[in-house]
Amino acid sequence: TATAGYPNDKEMYPAYEKCLELGMHVQFHTGCEELPGTRTKYQSPEHLDDVAMDFPELKILQLHCGIFNNMEMGLWNVMKHDNMYTDIVIPVPLLMHFRQYFDMEHIRFLEFFMPDKVFYGTDFPMTMPFYKAMLDNIMNMPISMEFKHKLTGNNFRKFVGWKVKNRNN
What angle do CA 132, 64, 3 make, to 5 degrees? Predict the structure, then answer.
């Protein structure tokens, strides 16, 4: 028996139709995953372009926005498709000095082009020891307070349909 591999394999389409019917979103890991047995080729955000086009009413969450894989395509997907969202993991400030990660240039890009379609993904449980430091890092970034609140919860609440706290959207 054949198994589907890429998110845009037609064998996956019945699952997306069922998610639409049930009002569910789908999510795909698009950052390079270091877990044993994972294959990076299946995590590329380029395969989600087809899914977003073929299912424009399906909410798609692109986990990690293609980090260390194809970040530019991850960003493009979110800008291009109304139904595509992403999370980003913002680590300790040291990694933010590298362009391959989410440096301040990328953060400002997100704030300018897609401020309502991105949120901070904790990558729990791996980041649990650094969680407070990462939140502190976000709050100390030279971005608007409104975008900080969107990154740290309000955009996620909107994505899943939770009531948004009344603080700068």
Answer: 135
Mean pLDDT for back-to-back runs of 10 residues, the chain (169 residues): 76 97 94 74 90 98 85 93 90 65 85 95 68 84 95 92 67
Whether the CB-CB separation of 25 and 159 falls below 8 Å is answered with yes
Q: Is 29 helix (H, G, I), strand (E, B) or coil?
A: strand
State the Cα–Cα distance between residues 14 and 20, nearest whole angstrom: 10
DSSP string, 55-95: -TTS-EEEEGGGTTT-HHHHHHHHHH-TTEEEEE----GGG
d(CA 93, CA 158): 27
Q: Quick one: DSSP state of residue 118? A: E
Give the C-alpha separation, 69 to 35, whole Å: 15
Alpha carbons within 13 A on the beta-carbon side of 133: 9
What span, in angstroms and rounded, lies between the C-alpha atoms of 139 and 129?
18
User: Which pTM value belongs to this model?
Assistant: 0.85
CA 46/CA 60 separation, integer angstroms = 13
Rounded CA gap, 133 and 128, in Å? 10
Compute, in degrees rounded to 10, the torsion defined by CA atoms 47, 45, 36, 122.
-140
